Inverse folding.
């Protein structure tokens, strides 16, 4: 099977031919058409049968759209709010006011960097305690004014570092979860790329949890699982399969509410289409949740999480 | 999720004949100590004061008034929703842990009294797959809090856990949300939740229920933190202070209220509970 790079190369060659065609007046259009068809076919083959590990790579693809891309495409008037009021402003978790189809919402989004420079500022998308505390503050603001909350999840995990532990990152995640569990406004969470463990769940306790088709959501990265459980860091493909971390698997397991389709090859192949599909879904979900009275909404959210888990009755077993 | 390496684990069942080796060498001070003496000393080395693990049953014996513990642990056991298998199928791992510990999973729940104060108590057992929180542990903790609400008693949770149970994938991760949601119910009805952190309280347990106590008390020698030391060093090549994620570290940075020695924990809980409820 061809890999993505080969296909991109082929696409570039076709483009070159097209230019040649236009410049020299030699008619190659039939050949170009044929190559284009072949390319589509190869792409179909490649992406229709992605392994779970390949989806992990797609979720982490350097060209994958990030939160800010969606903010620009989906919302009007994004007005960023900065700082946790305690120690700083995490650039890996953004918060702000925005309008979704005219409706004022509070948006949260985990943000990776595109360049080395930007990643230094954004800690490769890993949220620090100040990020979760900012998120909490923004959600409480939303609650005061009755604004629905939309969160876009995209992080390898909470930032594992000395300063994170000093600022009690575990406590910050726990407090964020506690705030979300009782928040009296609708919450819609969407995993747009990587849903890395507690660092992702920290802004993912919601009334509706959605995933983009090629996003992943997992308790542990396949690499760490390979090291810890298989004692072999090369076995991340196997770990990825075992963890059931794709949108499709998690939907089948009843752990998420919906999967938003992506164009063949991933969200970055046709960003406008992806953003528009995501926007439609958000508008629909927010409108639906707006019908709920606050106490019912909170109670229904409680029921959703109270029942999560799978175990078996062991009352008849000797023991 | 971080998983800490087992410390030297010592268990001597006083009801049975001591095993052939009456003595053990303390890994900490190197002294040869009489096992029975260690056990009678709450699994603390009589020579250097090093703490060894307590099983859930031993912990309950340490904290609860004699014969006051009434086991209410639900008769449920781990399922295998992902049909997970690493070097060993998950059901085998669970069965081994059950056989080794005599427990259904990594926690016991029950009514008890502590120095006369009626409570519902949950005690985790690190021997059972690192005390990890999967669907069963999550459900048992919620059951404990709901029983506390029902009986109008405080809830005490003694954590000893490496974090979420990886073999149950996202089901485990979501137990964080589930336990937090029920914890909020306790707050609504005005019942105290005392979180006791012991070695270790980390990962998904530290980042959810354990960090949400009205009061958080650490046992001396506890390890408290979110990401494991190895994870941080691998990811960041960062120099970490020697007391990183220790009880002193968590205290110094304001993550916990107090640090208490094992021998004083029962009295500590008694003093604390007295501020919230009447003794019977």
């Amino acid at each position: 099977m061809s890999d993505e790079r080969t296909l991109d190369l082929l696409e570039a060659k076709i483009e070159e031919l097209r230019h040649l065609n236009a410049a020299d007046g030699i008619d190659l259009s039939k050949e170009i058409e044929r190559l284009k068809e072949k390319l589509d076919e190869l792409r179909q083959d490649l992406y229709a049968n992605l392994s779970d590990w390949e989806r992990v790579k797609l979720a982490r693809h350097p060209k994958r759209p990030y939160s800010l891309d969606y903010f620009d495409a989906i919302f009007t008037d994004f007005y960023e709010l900065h700082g946790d009021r305690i120690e700083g402003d995490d650039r890996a978790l953004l918060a702000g006011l925005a309008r979704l189809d005219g409706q004022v919402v509070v948006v949260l989004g985990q943000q990776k960097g595109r360049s080395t420079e930007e990643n230094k500022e954004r800690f490769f998308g890993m949220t620090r305690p100040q990020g979760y505390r900012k998120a909490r503050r923004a959600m409480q603001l939303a609650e005061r004014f009755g604004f629905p909350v939309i969160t876009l999840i995209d992080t390898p995990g909470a930032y594992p570092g000395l300063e994170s532990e000093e600022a009690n990152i575990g406590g910050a995640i726990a407090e964020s979860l506690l705030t979300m569990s009782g928040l009296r406004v609708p919450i819609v969470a969407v995993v747009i790329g990587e849903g890395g463990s507690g660092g992702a769940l920290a802004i993912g306790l919601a009334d509706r949890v959605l995933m983009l088709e090629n996003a992943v959501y997992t308790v542990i990265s396949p690499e760490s699982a390979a090291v810890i459980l298989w004692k072999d860091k090369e076995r991340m493909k196997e770990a990825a399969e075992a963890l059931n971390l794709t949108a499709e698997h998690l939907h089948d397991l009843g752990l998420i509410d919906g999967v938003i389709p992506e164009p063949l090859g991933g969200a970055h192949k046709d960003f406008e289409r992806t953003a528009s599909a995501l926007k439609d879904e958000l508008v629909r979900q927010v409108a639906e949740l707006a019908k709920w009275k606050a106490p019912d909404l909170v109670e229904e959210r409680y029921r959703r999480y109270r029942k999560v888990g799978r175990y078996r009755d062991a009352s008849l077993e000797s023991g | 999720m971080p998983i800490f390496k087992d410390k030297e684990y010592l268990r001597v069942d006083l009801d049975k004949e001591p095993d052939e080796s009456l003595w053990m060498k303390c890994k900490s001070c190197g002294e040869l100590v009489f096992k029975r003496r260690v056990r009678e000393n709450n699994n603390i080395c009589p020579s250097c004061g090093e703490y060894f693990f307590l099983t859930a049953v031993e912990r309950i014996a340490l904290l609860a008034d004699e014969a006051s513990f009434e086991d209410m642990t639900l008769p449920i056991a781990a399922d295998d929703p992902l049909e997970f298998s690493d070097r060993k199928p998950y059901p085998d791992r669970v069965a081994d842990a059950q056989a080794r510990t005599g427990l259904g999973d990594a926690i016991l729940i029950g009514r008890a009294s502590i120095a006369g104060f009626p409570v519902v108590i949950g005690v985790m057992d690190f021997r059972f797959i690192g005390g990890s929180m999967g669907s069963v542990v999550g459900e048992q903790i919620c059951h404990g809090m709901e029983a506390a609400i029902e009986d109008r008693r405080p809830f005490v949770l003694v954590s000893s856990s490496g974090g979420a149970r990886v073999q149950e994938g996202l089901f485990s991760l979501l137990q964080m949300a589930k336990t937090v949601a029920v914890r909020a119910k306790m707050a609504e009805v005005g019942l105290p939740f005392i979180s006791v952190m012991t070695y270790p309280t980390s990962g998904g347990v530290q980042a959810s229920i354990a960090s949400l106590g009205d009061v958080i008390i650490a046992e001396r020698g506890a390890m408290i933190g979110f990401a494991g030391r190895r994870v941080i060093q691998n990811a960041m090549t960062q120099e970490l202070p020697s007391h990183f994620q220790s009880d002193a570290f968590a205290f110094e940075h304001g993550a916990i209220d107090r640090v208490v020695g094992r021998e004083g924990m029962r009295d500590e809980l008694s003093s604390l509970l007295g501020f919230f409820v009447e003794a019977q």
Summary: The first strand of chain A starts at residue 76 and ends at 81. The radius of gyration of chain A is 22 Å. The mean pLDDT of chain A is 94. Chain A touches chain B through 57 residues (CB under 8 Å).
